[in-house]
Each structure stands twice: as structure tokens, then as C-alpha cells.
From TrEMBL:
<keyword id="KW-0472">Membrane</keyword>
<dbReference type="GO" id="GO:0008120">
    <property type="term" value="F:ceramide glucosyltransferase activity"/>
</dbReference>
<dbReference type="GO" id="GO:0006679">
    <property type="term" value="P:glucosylceramide biosynthetic process"/>
</dbReference>
<comment type="pathway">
    <text>Lipid metabolism; sphingolipid metabolism.</text>
</comment>
<feature type="transmembrane region" description="Helical">
    <location>
        <begin position="6"/>
        <end position="28"/>
    </location>
</feature>
<dbReference type="InterPro" id="IPR025993">
    <property type="entry name" value="Ceramide_glucosylTrfase"/>
</dbReference>
<dbReference type="GO" id="GO:0016020">
    <property type="term" value="C:membrane"/>
</dbReference>
<keyword id="KW-0812">Transmembrane</keyword>
<feature type="transmembrane region" description="Helical">
    <location>
        <begin position="281"/>
        <end position="300"/>
    </location>
</feature>
<keyword id="KW-0328">Glycosyltransferase</keyword>
<comment type="pathway">
    <text>Sphingolipid metabolism.</text>
</comment>
<dbReference type="InterPro" id="IPR029044">
    <property type="entry name" value="Nucleotide-diphossugar_trans"/>
</dbReference>
<keyword id="KW-0808">Transferase</keyword>
<protein>
    <submittedName>
        <fullName>Glycosyltransferase</fullName>
    </submittedName>
</protein>
<dbReference type="Pfam" id="PF13506">
    <property type="entry name" value="Glyco_transf_21"/>
</dbReference>
<keyword id="KW-1133">Transmembrane helix</keyword>
Amino acid sequence: MLLLLQLLLTGAIVGSLLFYAACAFFTLRFFRSPAPSLPEAEILPGISILVPVKGLDPDAWENWVSLCQQDYPTYEVLFGLVDTDDPAIPLLQKLEQTYPDKVRLFTGLAPRGINHKDSSLTYLLEAMQHEIIVFVDSDIQVSRDYLRTVTAPLVDPQVGMVTCAFVGRHPKYLGAALASLGRCCDFVPSALIARAMDGGLRFAVGATMAMRKSALEQAGGLHTSRIGSDYNLGKRTAEAGYRVELSRYLLESDTGNETVGELVRRELRWARTIRFNRGNIYYGQAFCFGTVWSVLLLLVSGLAKWTIALTLFTFVLRYLQAFIAVRNLQCDGLVGWLWLLPWRDALSFWVWLKGAWGDRVTWRGRNLQIYEDGLIRIADAGETSPS
């Protein structure tokens, strides 16, 4: 039995080594390939930026102003809120007065489903004026070339959606550093592997999704009672016969002073969302935790010399892969946090294990139950979401 366990752990480590090598390769290939050319200004179509808002983030004004100062000829920015007493409304009213030719504000949008974010977006879809849609999270700050860059791949009619990853380049607190390491060293490289294997992504990231209105309709539109709707919309866009592209544009998103507990609850929600959307593919992530398997193998083998050598090699390759990701994603502010990488791996492993079962999540203060391929309903009274 002990020998069998050692063989299983060794197999998991070998698989993880291949995963680390693939992460490094596809990261280098993606970020060192020539940047795609941008279309000429005279052929740029009009764009509607749709932003669902709930609450007021610390840098809200700077975030929203950045959307209104794009180097792009024709676009509008629509903001939608459920609550008429939301603290963001006065600032958004000021923004509307500052940019009256671009900004429109919609408040009191009665929920059309459990997912209030997508519910608000359905109202904005009805009010927008242009064919190209860019869904944007409200806590994102962008540069002036953002619109031109993220919509450029849509010139190809086979591209149905463009999405952007987000990273925190200069985290100041432990929780933010752990979150940033996960996004930079794990999520983006993994997405690039999936992109290469599938000829495009089969999911999307809600921080930015750019698509034509016609492609959204063919993908089935927005679903207002679904969790991970961005992830699912990317999957449905691919199933409709389109390619989903990952943009070279990287969004900046720092989780501030988020605690480790808050980080775990958020990532557990993501993990269960992915499991319900992707099924058994979720369990293939077992080959992403080489450092964890190495430590377990050391303990099981009684610190045998060959396991010490294998563990050292695994850690060296993991750190090399992480360093390649940090440098190519221009996250030099994470270098000082790389000592946390084994703890980040252990945390990811724990979240993956917890995400492998259960159907309860906490989202925006509500306890929800996931079923089928990511649909949600309010959990039974008295039930709590596991953390």
C-alpha cells in the first residue's frame, strides 16, 4: 500500500512538472509574439460600454473617468444600479454631468433574476446604441488605448468574444499578494494552455468581455439566474461556433486589504462554479500541485534521497515558471512576494479539494445553491455555505 501511494504521488508530481513546463512555454510564446495590429480609426465601429455597479470602491472616480477618456471616436458608457440609495449614485451623477456626451446612468433596476449583476446588464443592453458591447466590472481602471486594443480581434468575424485577465502588480497586503500570485502564476498561464489546446478559450473573465450584439444573441444572451455567468457565456460563445480570444491587454486589479479568509471564500465560489460548468475536467487540476505532492511524498517515503532530489527539482521548476510569469506579465511588484509561493500552492490545493464537492456558495452576502451547469437559487432557510 505504501509503495502504491508513492507511485501515485510520483505520477502526480511528474504530471505537475509537465504542467509547469507548459505554463512557462505558453506564457513566453504568448507575450513575446508580435502584438496584433490595431484597426485604423476611420473603420472603428461604435461601442457601448456596460458597467453594473454595486457600492463604492476606493478608486471609483478614477476607474470610471478612465472609461470616459478613451482614445476612440464613438462610444458610450452606461452604468446600471439596482438600489436607488446606492452610495455610488452621487458620484455617478457627477460623472454624468462631467461627460454628458458619453455617460448615461440607470438606477432602480428591479432584479430580473438572482444574479443582480447580469440583471442590471439586461436593462443596459436594451438601452445601448451600438453593435459592439464591452462588459466591464466597475472596479477596473484602464489606459486610453483600452477600447481599441480589446475590440481589435473582433475584426475577424470568427472571433465572437475577447476577454481580459486581471492581475495585481503591486499588492501591499498578504491577502492581495496571495490573490495576485494565483492570478499571475497560475490562472493566466493555465488559460494560455487551454487557449492553445482548444484553439481559443472556452470561458471568459467578467472583468472585460467584448463582443458583437449578434454573437451575444447566438450564444443565448445573458442568464440572470446563473453564477459564473461570464465563464458560462464564454463557453456558450465557443459552442455557438465562435472563437473566444484572450487579449494581450492585462487589467490592473488589486484586492486591497482583503483578508485570507475572504480570498478563500471567493476562490471557493469560483472553484465550484468551474466544477459545475466544466464537469470532470475540474479534477484534471490535480496535476497543478507539484509542490504539495512533493511534500507529501517526502513524508510518505521517510525523506528518501530520491524524493528529496525530486522535491528540489519540482520547487526549482515551479519557481522558474512563476518567475517567467511575473516578468512577462510585468508584475515585478510580486517578486518580493514570491517567498509565499509554496503557501499559495497549499491554499490553491485546499480550495481545489473543497471545491470538489458541495453546491453552496456565498455571494454578495447571500447563501446560494448551485445546480445543473451553474444555475443558482437561494439556499434553503437555515442553511449556510461552507467555507
